[in-house]
Specification:
Helix content: 40-55%
Structural class: alpha/beta
Oligomer: single chain
Shape: globular
Number of strands: 5
Strand content: 15-25%
Radius of gyration: 16 Å
Largest sheet: 5 strands, parallel
Distance between the termini: 44 Å
Length: 170
């Protein structure tokens, strides 16, 4: 493993939101390299394919990468701690929006620690303006014709609108 401290920020990112971007921006400053791990989680019934989600994340972080932050985007479909080992990540970064997130995230961190005690989990509280944003709510608001422009990037908003127009019954 190189001397770089590699962090892993996993999620479904269906779609990536401004809340995710907040955690990515802040998390990337805490590690030498941040890998955004896009889960191929068909069980969650994602609206966008894995490739589409990876592309959306890449589009939304392009400016961050231009500032010199070392950020990579990769899809994964195995156990998170195995993916972390495979990529050389020493820390898993997770965002917390509310107390309700904490219980689930605490359990996941404890399980991951039991599976690999060398990989730490770091929690970042969502910024005040991002605490209520979730991909699920963004999709629901967008599907019903609401304005999602303050929750996602303009590119992501466009992709969501196009998806809703092409699949109005989903």
């Amino acid at each position: 493993m190189s001397g770089k401290r590699i962090g892993l920020y996993p999620g479904t990112f269906d779609p990536i939101t401004n809340g995710h971007l907040d955690i990515i921006t802040r998390g990337a400053k805490l590690v030498d390299k941040l890998i955004i791990a896009v889960a191929r989680n068909a069980g969650k019934g994602p609206m966008f394919s894995t490739d589409e989600r990876v592309e959306m994340v890449l589009d939304d972080i392009a400016e961050l990468r231009r500032t010199g932050l070392d950020i990579e985007v990769m899809a994964f479909d195995n156990l998170l701690v195995h993916f972390a080992r495979d990529t050389g990540a020493a820390v898993i970064i997770r965002g917390l929006r509310a107390v309700s997130d904490f219980e689930y995230e605490f359990q996941m961190a404890a399980m991951n620690a039991r599976l690999d005690k060398e990989i730490e989990t770091m929690f970042l509280m969502a910024s005040e303006r991002q605490q209520f944003i979730s991909s699920r709510f963004v999709k629901e608001i967008g599907k019903l014709g609401g304005d999602i422009s303050t929750f996602v990037s303009p590119l992501t908003a466009t992709r969501l609108k196009e998806r809703f127009q092409s699949n109005p019954m989903d």
